[in-house]
Amino acid sequence: MIHFNNVSKTYPGGFLALKNVSFELAAGEMAFLTGHSGAGKSTLLKLMSLMEKPTSGKIQINGSEISNIKYKDIPYARRKIGMIFQNHNLLMDRTIFDNVALPLVIEGYSHKETRKRVEAALDKVHLSDKLRCFPNMLSGGEQQRVGIARALVNKPLILLADEPTGNLDPKLSLDIIRLFEEFNDFGVTVLIATHDLGLIARMKYRTLTLKQGSMITDGIVEGLQVRHENNE
Ligand SMILES: Nc1ncnc2c1ncn2[C@@H]1O[C@H](COP(=O)(O)OP(=O)(O)OP(=O)(O)O)[C@@H](O)[C@H]1O
């Protein structure tokens, strides 16, 4: 589903944020991405979601080469990908309904179809009763779930989450991860960037670790040890 082949990213100004990164994530897989602050996690997610372009190397998403994609083709390619941000990027002056509806409005869905899909997405994250609320009327965990509903409302094949549990307590963090597992059970490929090593150790999913832009481990975290799977 996601295939990185020797991908490097140098930002304007010369900073090398990713160095020759190669890995594959199969369709329907769920994995964590970790590493210290500045290791390159957000950069890797931005390359997948076409917010940044790689400097060298090849990236395939769902069989399509996206490394040199034309500007006009980006919106179409992005439809396959749902992105969740740590600070959830909600529009504070719009209702929960309007926030979740936004991707569908941009794509030109009818009012009827939009209503149906938004209600279904909010039902999945257990927020049906908050349709008419504004974001500041919701708790941090609820706001994060609105961000998840918005990322999933147009049924993407891939869900990318950048520190989705960053501001939440352990119980709420686990609730959010359980929600991702539910979508993963329906076949959505999920990649979650997080600093939370405790969470990673509890969940026992494949974990990709970046250090100063290089992929240093790829395996299952057992306690504080990583069992290497693809590393020589
Ligand atoms: N737009 C940019 N221009 C220049 N340098 C950047 C840009 N974005 C990120 N960087 C640099 O690239 C490096 C990797 O940043 P990135 O945000 O990918 O790290 P991260 O692992 O997600 O960190 P954190 O956990 O703190 O969010 C950092 O040193 C950062 O300063």
TrEMBL record:
<feature type="domain" description="ABC transporter">
    <location>
        <begin position="2"/>
        <end position="232"/>
    </location>
</feature>
<comment type="subunit">
    <text>Homodimer. Forms a membrane-associated complex with FtsX.</text>
</comment>
<keyword id="KW-1003">Cell membrane</keyword>
<dbReference type="GO" id="GO:0005886">
    <property type="term" value="C:plasma membrane"/>
</dbReference>
<dbReference type="InterPro" id="IPR003439">
    <property type="entry name" value="ABC_transporter-like_ATP-bd"/>
</dbReference>
<keyword id="KW-0067">ATP-binding</keyword>
<dbReference type="InterPro" id="IPR017871">
    <property type="entry name" value="ABC_transporter-like_CS"/>
</dbReference>
<keyword id="KW-0132">Cell division</keyword>
<dbReference type="GO" id="GO:0051301">
    <property type="term" value="P:cell division"/>
</dbReference>
<dbReference type="GO" id="GO:0016887">
    <property type="term" value="F:ATP hydrolysis activity"/>
</dbReference>
<keyword id="KW-0472">Membrane</keyword>
<dbReference type="InterPro" id="IPR005286">
    <property type="entry name" value="Cell_div_FtsE"/>
</dbReference>
<dbReference type="GO" id="GO:0005524">
    <property type="term" value="F:ATP binding"/>
</dbReference>
<comment type="function">
    <text>Part of the ABC transporter FtsEX involved in cellular division. Important for assembly or stability of the septal ring.</text>
</comment>
<keyword id="KW-0131">Cell cycle</keyword>
<dbReference type="InterPro" id="IPR003593">
    <property type="entry name" value="AAA+_ATPase"/>
</dbReference>
<dbReference type="InterPro" id="IPR015854">
    <property type="entry name" value="ABC_transpr_LolD-like"/>
</dbReference>
<comment type="similarity">
    <text>Belongs to the ABC transporter superfamily.</text>
</comment>
<dbReference type="GO" id="GO:0022857">
    <property type="term" value="F:transmembrane transporter activity"/>
</dbReference>
<dbReference type="InterPro" id="IPR027417">
    <property type="entry name" value="P-loop_NTPase"/>
</dbReference>
<protein>
    <recommendedName>
        <fullName>Cell division ATP-binding protein FtsE</fullName>
    </recommendedName>
</protein>
<keyword id="KW-0547">Nucleotide-binding</keyword>
<dbReference type="Pfam" id="PF00005">
    <property type="entry name" value="ABC_tran"/>
</dbReference>
